[in-house]
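TICKET #2291
ISSUE: user wants both folds in one file
ATTACHMENT 1:
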Amino acid sequence: MKIERIEMALLQVPLHTPFRTALRCVDTTEDVVVRIRTDDGHVGHGAAAPTAVITGDTRASIVGAIRQSIAPRLVGLDARDLNRTLQAVHGAIQRNTSAKAAVEIALYDLWAQHHGAPLYRILGGGDPALRTDITISVDDVEAMVAAALSALDRGYDALKIKVGQDIATDLERVRAIHSAVGTRARLRLDANQGWTAKQAVRAIRTVEDAGIALELVEQPVPARDLDGLQHVTAHVDTPVMADESAFGPTEVLELLRRRAADIVNIKLMKAGGLSHAVRIADLAMLHGVPCMIGCMIESSISVAAAAHLAAARPDAISLVDLDSPALAQYDPVEGGTVFDGPRIVLGDGPGLGIGEIRGLQPLEN
């Protein structure tokens, strides 16, 4: 099972509606798709989403990192030797977490194919059925309420409300959605680094005093402001989740040491792939801190890998935010994981079980 070559292609899928946060607005899923081919005919699939405002990775940087640094280290290695191939990926280049994630996903896919079982079973087993929340993007109040009610009609019972631009308007959004939804869905708030620590404490306390029980508030302060994150966590009753502050195991260990967050959000694009994501989940579980599995605006290729991890680590990963495939107009991937609104069902084929991928485009750089 020697690695013969690594191919890349571009995959773009339009979203139903623009995805708006405090950091950006996106109307299309854009992935760099990786296919690793071996000498015995196996193909491992992976993908990376360029998210420059969060990871610093662009399409060009992902392609360049894989083509110039990572791929030359992997060609000729045996895909069955996962430890060696992962060491080659992480030793090839610093940072570039999205590029590493795409290649790692493909390597794990091949490794599980070799063992003849779905990836989640090789990683530890678990229930192949998951439920995800759905994101309510930043918009005017009426539009966000309408989106929340539409989500309920489609079977979602957890809503992730994007805020973080203007506190007064943010509070109006939360109150209006809570009034419309009532107890029919759990509400999660994501400020995407949009507040200062003082603003966050004031805003969250205002929501608490209004009798609105939020399941969590995600990344209320800038990623590097660990003092601010720690302050917010200590001064509100609502659980606070670290996202952009929690990239890899090193950053997460510091968060855990400082008790700077109540929950950790794991994303493969931040962590640099499945190997570091597994470490984060295990570290958090040792410290008694629950995790969410999340994603960027990604195709179902990489989101499927995240879902396999969540299924394999249910004791550590109790919250699921893998709604990106549901935001897209269609799923270009045949086979493997089924994304059906709030329901995610993992396939029983070897690895990720991915078949044909529609709409792949050649990459020029």
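ATTACHMENT 2:
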Amino acid sequence: MRKTVTTVALASALVLAGGTAAQAITGNFTDDHEHEYVGLAVFYNPDGTASHRCSGSLLTDRVFLTAGHCVTLDDEGTVATSARVYFEQDVQADVPGYPESGGATSHEIYSYGYEGLDEIPETRDAGLLLLDAPVQTVYPGIDEYASLATAGALERYKAAHPGNSATTTISGYGVQESNGSRTKTVAYRERLTAQSFIIGLNGTNAGGYNVKLSTNPGDGRGGTCFGDSGGPILIGDTVTAVNSFVVNGACAGTGFAYRTDTADVIAFILAKAGSEAGEIQFDDVA
């Protein structure tokens, strides 16, 4: 049987306008008022129209980490030249001008080299934005940032936490709530959070580049699905990976996040962060 592989996934302009639903964190999620550094990024076409949205996380007051497919406009790897990042917990309620106004702007956007999913497991699915000004220019209340996992942190963490005890926290925007007769097809623009756990770091689609995550929203945990690309896979307040793709479709598929705890990805982040690089905090989550 042929596997279906898709990104986790870019919300279309229709979703930005409140049309067709996109999915993201599912199951046992709650409103996320804790991870103030997780934001919703909207990327724009050259003509200024909104292209798609993703999630991501601040590493400093200007450095915003997301997925590589989020910062690109097509499968050829064309990188967007502008974006807005919103940090309201409920963007749809609190930003009436979304996506044409509000948020913190960025005109310095980088891809690690993402050109599609043909090269799984090494998709190079990491991206970085530098905000035009410190986030406090627009959001004066933000005073905490995510740290970045040291190289190899996930191997050490998984070895120290066998089975389902290797828990993670997921956070991001854009949810389709599906719960029996209460199924909704509404594209939320709210920051939500849930718990998941690491299944493995190796295998056909992981291969040391991706972390395989539970997408089953059972046992009090949440799942990941479409609409939450670029959102962080957190251990504490440390980013270990960014949501990337699912296999075999929708919320019943298996989720993968692109690891940021590798020497090469860390080097990319530090190089593109420029003068901000020294502000990034590192943590060994083991």
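RESOLUTION: both attachments delivered.
EXTRA DETAIL ON ATTACHMENT 2: The longest helix spans residues 263-273.
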